[in-house]
Amino acid sequence: MQLGQVLISENQIADAVGKLAGRVSRDYDLSRIVLVGAMDGAVCFLSDLMRAFAQPVDVTTVRMRRYDGTHGGEVTVSWLPLRDRIEGREVLIVEGIVDTGETCAVLSERLSELGAASVDICALLDKPSRRTHDIKATYIGFEVPDVFVVGYGMDYNGAYRSLRDVCVLEGGESELN
Ligand code: 5GP
Ligand code: MG
Prior knowledge:
The protein is an alpha/beta fold.
């Protein structure tokens, strides 16, 4: 396993974050929106996106984990926001990468159960070739091929999360953790 090429640079990411914030601002009343960052992978994206809006936005986090590290492993929720943060709100899930779509599908369902008025997805990266769940992600920064990526919040077994660029991990299987 070794760190490969830069797939998306720090500058490209900054540009995309600004554009995504612009699109969200045009589509939503920002005083009604709540950003729900999917930890830990979205930590950098959430932190940059929330500060890219021209006015304050409400922000909270959720944590989803695979029950085990294997394909198709059950997605479990480590923590969710309280109902009073979500009920009646326009929810925007902020996710680092959408792969099979299962995490976002489960999360959307849980947020709807908490009374969200609407649930949409903003993901920095999208790996559409591996999709098994029919989810709607209105806001996507970049489409990526079927490679395992690390950096800008995304890890491999806890490593590489603090890299500024999104890089390819050579020899990394597309397996979730
Ligand atoms: P999904 O549930 O859509 O299959 O997977 C989404 C989650 O899997 C992401 O939140 C992320 O934690 C992890 N994931 C999927 N693809 C990658 C990847 O290429 N690199 C990293 N670091 N994590 C990934
Ligand atoms: Mg992870």
